[in-house]
Design a protein that fits this description.
This protein is an alpha+beta fold. It is built from nine helices and five strands. The relative contact order is 0.04.
Length: 349
Amino acid sequence: MQGNREKPPLELATSEALRYRAEKRVRDDARGVCWPGAPEDTQKLVHELEVHQVEVEMQNVELRRAIEELEVSRNKYRELYDFAPTAYFTFDLQGLMLDINFAAERMFETDRRLLVGKPFVDLVATPESVERFAVILQTVLEGSCDAGCELEVKARDGSVKFGRLQMVKAGAKSATSCILASFVDNTIRNDLQMQLKSEHDRMELMVEERTKDLVTANRNLNISINEIKTSEESLKKAYAEIKRLKDRLQAENIYLSKEVTREYSLDQIIGQSDTLSHVFFQIDQVAPQDTTVLLLGETGTGKGVIARALHQRSGRKERLMITVNCSALPANLIESELFGREKGAFTGA
C-alpha cells in the first residue's frame, strides 16, 4: 500500500486532481482491509487498478453531468433559436439550409421541414439578389468574420419581401463548419420609404408647379402694375388737360360775360327822351322782382336789348339767359312750351 499523499495544490492539472481524489476514495473504501502475504508488486498493481477504476467512474459521472448541462444549455439555445422574432438560418458550406426557426417559417409561409435541405437561392426573388448572396457566401467562406447584404426573397404566395441577410461562419474544422445567418424583414420599412419617396416626389412636383404658377402670376401682376402705372400717367395727363381746358373755359366764360354785360348794359342804350327815361325807370323797378315781364314792340325796336338789361339787373344775372325763337314754334304748342303743361292733358304729358 502506498502511503498517504498530500493534497495537491490548486495549480495542478485536472488529471492529477482526479487521480488524487480517486486515490483518496480507494484508501477510504479499503480502510481496515489488509493483504497478508501478497507480493508488493501485486499490491501495487491492484491499487493501480482500483484507482483507475475509480477514475473511470468519476469521469463517467462528470461526463454524464456535462452531458446533462449541455442538454439543458442546448434546449435553452434551441428555444431562443426557434422562438426568436428574427428569422434565423443554418447553412452548410454550399448554401443549403440545414435548419431554420419559426420566424423564418412564418416569413416564407412554408413548413420548415419542407425547406430543410434546399438551397437558399431558391427563395431569392431576383437575379441581382442571387448574385449578392453568392458574393457574401464566398466572402464568409474565405475567412471573413461576417458579411451581409440587402436581398429580395419570395414567399409561398409569390409576394416579395425586402430585408438584410447577415452571415457568419461557425466551426473551425470543415467537417463541423456551418454558416449561421439572420434575415431582418424590412418590407414594411421599405414600403414606407417608397411611399415617403413617392409623396416627396409628388410634393416636389406640386411645389414646382405652384412655383411656376406663382412666377406666372407675379409676371402678370407686374404687367398689370405697369399697365396701371401707365394708365395713371395717362389719367394724370388727361386730368391736367381737362383742368387746363376747364380753366380756359372759365376764363372765356368770364370774358364773354363781361363782353355781354358791356354790350348789353344800359350804358349801350342811348337816348334822353321822356319815353326812354320811363323805360329805364321801369327796368329798375321790375328787374329786382321775381316775376314775368312782357315786352311789347315792333320788330327792330330793341326788345332783346331791354330783355338783357333786365337780366343783368335781376337776381339771376349769374346764370345763363336762354332765349327762345317764338316764331319757330307752332301756334298750338307755344303756350305749353312757354308756360308748361298740366299732367294728363295729353298723351305723354
